From TrEMBL:
InterPro entries: DUF202, IM_YidH-like. Coiled coil: none annotated. Residues 15-85 form the DUF202 domain. This is DUF202 domain-containing protein. It is a multi-pass membrane protein. It is found in: Cell membrane. Keywords: Cell membrane, Membrane, Transmembrane, Transmembrane helix. The keyword Cell membrane applies. The keyword Nucleotide-binding does not apply. The chain crosses the membrane at residues 21-45, 57-78, 98-118.
């Protein structure tokens, strides 16, 4: 019976699988953020509001959500690759800065979205 060779990454299978799950969660989050922008636009154009400020705010929410979603995908990919490298080198550190960054911007989108629908 032939034995399989152990790779360097196979020593840390659990960590790599957790890193992949985290990456996929960030991708789902990015899709949801982009969806918020489409929701703002769709709801805006299905309401009788026709004020120029309403249209500008709806477009701002949509564009900002799209940019933030794309930025989230880019950062998630970068962090996934960095974590992969750090897991193999056994120098992993958690990335709390990304969590604070994303929480701030998602909170901002929701705040603007709430203002838009309360006005």
């Amino acid at each position: 019976m032939k034995e399989k060779n152990e790779t360097h990454e196979s020593k840390y299978i659990q960590q790599h699988l957790a890193n992949e799950r985290t990456y996929l969660a960030w991708i789902r989050t990015a899709i949801a953020i982009i969806g918020i922008g489409f929701l703002a636009t769709t709801l805006h154009y299905n309401t009788p509001l026709a004020d120029i400020y309403d249209q500008t705010l709806a477009i701002f929410i949509s564009v900002f959500s799209l940019i933030l979603g794309l930025l989230t995908i880019t950062l998630a990919t970068f962090i996934y690759l960095r974590n992969r490298r750090n897991i193999n080198a056994q120098t992993f550190h958690s990335s709390f800065k990304l969590i604070i960054f994303m929480t701030t911007f998602i909170g901002f989108i929701l705040f603007v979205f709430a203002i838009y629908y309360l006005i």
